[in-house]
Amino acid sequence: MGSRQITEKSLAMLRSLPRLSLGNIRDNPGSRKNIKRGRGQHGGDKHGAGNKGSGQRQNYMRLGYETGNNPFYLRMPHEHYYKGHHHRRQYPPISLLEIQKLIDTNRLDITKPIDIASIVRSGLYNFFPDQKHFGIHLTDEGMDIFSAKVNIEVQWASEQVIAAIEKNGGVITTAYYDPHSLILLKNPKSFFQTGQAIPRRMIPPPDVIEYYTSAEMRGYLADPEKISEERLRLSQKYGYQLPILESDKNYNMLCERKDPRQIFYGLEPGWVINLRDKCILKPKDEELLQFYAS
Amino acid sequence: MAFAPIRTHVMRLIGQSGQYSTLLQRSMAYKSAISLETLYPNSSLKLTTPAFSPNPDEKFSGYIPIDKLDIKYSASSGPGGQNVNKVHTKVDLRFKVDEADWIPKEIRDKMLELHGKKLSKEGFLILRSDVTRSQQLNLADCLQKLRNIIREASVTKKEASPETAERIRQRHLKASRLRVAIKREDALRRAQRQPPTVVDL
Known about the structure:
- The structure holds two protein chains of two kinds.
- By secondary structure, chain A is mainly alpha-helical.
- Chain A contains 13 helices and seven strands.
- Chain A has helices at residues 3-16, 40-43, 53-57, 72-75, 96-104, 116-121, 159-167, 179-186, 188-194, 209-213, 224-238, 251-254, 286-292, and strands spanning 93-95, 137-139, 151-154, 156-157, 171-174, 272-274, 279-281.
- Chain A has a three-stranded parallel beta sheet with strand order 1-2-4. In chain A, strands 3-5 form a two-stranded parallel sheet. A two-stranded antiparallel sheet of chain A has the order 6-7.
- In chain A, α7 crosses α11 (224-238).
- Chain B has a three-stranded antiparallel beta sheet, covered by helices on one side.
- The longest helix of chain B has 32 residues, at 162-193.
- Chain B has seven helices and three strands.
- Chain B is elongated.
- Chain B has a domain at 68-154: Double Stranded RNA Binding Domain (2-Layer Sandwich), CATH 3.30.160.20.
- Classes of the chains: A mainly alpha, B mainly alpha.
- At the A-B interface, α7 and α11 of A face α6 of B.
- Chain A: Residues 21-57 are annotated as: Disordered.
- Chain A: Residues 93-173 form the Large ribosomal subunit protein uL15/eL18 domain.
- Chain A: One of its GO terms (cellular component) is mitochondrial large ribosomal subunit.
């Protein structure tokens, strides 16, 4: 029925129905409760307590008791040490030894910058963004034997790991990716096949923004000049000659970094990648360009 | 358009020449509102190898030239099976104190005074470390020990002024006075617990 017919029918009904009076109205359901008297046919005799048993004798079992078997509320033990685990970020680890193995077995290309996408693509590391995994934690196992010159971008690294990479003339950066960006990075091909525009990467949350703006941790939001000073300090602390990056022939590759809003190397937010026709569609509208560059 | 193929040809030439490619990449690279250029407008945004800037207040500049130190690695002691036997995590760091021109003369003399007996026959100061399971961390520990030695040798105790010396002497005297007074009181208390002698009665 169309809306015009509905209104016409309702108006016709109103015309034909009788007038509103005290005789044709009733209370809203639940507004009046029948007063329960403990006397008379309905309230008297057993007074709503039933026959025999704990119900009539007011000897009730405690709430949750299941007549002896292990009750539901006790079947699942609760350990306080994991309180709030679902609110915390996790960084599944991969060691420097693993990275060295990947490089030695040609699963990782060190002539290009390495980020989480390339490590996942090597096939020997996986992470699940929907399980509160926020990226790679590079651990120090194998830091003594690490001997590759790489430009690597991870999400968490300690001081000795940074020293191990810089000792060999490499560059390490710690960068934050929000969960949606990580889902994209984990499988870029499936994202490109959806035909959506590449979104912007979000900024780190307040409790970790200090980490990513600190030069000591080689944060991606830190000043590169301060990072250079920290490199010298670390070389003195760990006892190695600081390799001169500027005279390296791969200096440009080693210093290549993503913009804080960029998810993929060489691809900007707002672009639509067409894998079938092998072309990139870029926005032209001013408003869109402004948004994606914000 | 007739100009289009010429323009692309020119662009290709520019792209091929190594000098201009980075310039072009920089100008065409994506720059968001929170890029490093907007965050640090006064910075060069380059990773460099800066020269060490010594602390002007201190005698020792703070810089330790690693190439002037003789560092050797060996296997550590203790339990650990095959791993402790094979992995050389112990660090042996040595250098001749007399020939260490990166340490100022006064500090070197003080070091010889403090640790002269510990030097080897040839005059090497030897520092060893095998505290951790990692060579890198043990080397850092050795260097920290070295820095502590240099620090010990370079700190000069400030002599107290005559007023302070006098105040310290008065404090010692007061403490002695109090100590003796308490001793006297205790002795009196103990003497009063004894039964009276014929002389007192």
